[in-house]
Amino acid sequence: MSQSISLKKILVLLLITVFMTVTNKAFAQLQDMKVLNVPIDISNDFRDFSNTYYLADSLSKFDPASASGTITYKRYQYFTRLAFNNMLGVLKPVPSNEFPTTEYAASPELAFSLQFVSPRTVRIRASSGFQVNPDQESLMLVGGKAPVDTKSWKYSKVEGGYCYTSDYGSVTILVHPWHVEIRDANGKLLTKTIHHQDNADSTYTPVMPFSFVRRASDYSRSMCASFALSPGEKIFGCGESFTQFNKRGSKVVLWADDANGIQNETMYKPIPFYMSSRGYGVFMHTSTPITCDFGKYFSGVNSMMIGDDEADLFVFLGEPKDILNEYTNLTGKPNMPPLWSFGLWMSRITYTSEKEGRDVAAELRKNQVPADVIHYDTGWFTIDWRTDYKFDPGRFSDPAKLMSDLKTQGFHVSLWQLPYFTPKNKLFPELVQKNLVVKDSKGNLPYEDAVLDFSNPETVQWYQDKIAGLLKLGVGVIKVDFGEAAPNNGLFHSGKTGFYEHNLYPLRYNKAVADITKQVNGENIIWARSAWAGSQRYPLHWGGDAANTNTAMAAELRGGLSFGLSGFSFWSHDMGGFVLKSPEELYGRWAAFGFLSSHSRTHGAPPKEPWKYSPEFLKLFRMEDNMRYQLMPYIYAQAKDCTERGLPMLRALFVEYPNDPGAWLVDDQYLFGSDMLVAPMFEKGTERNVYLPGKTQWVDYQTGQVYEPGWQTIKTAAMPIIVLVRSGAVIPHIKLAQSTMQMDWSNLELVSYATTGNAAKGLICLPSDNVLRKVTLTGAALDSDPLNGAVKWKIRKYGDK
Question: Is the pLDDT of residue 3 over 80?
Answer without folding.
Answer: no
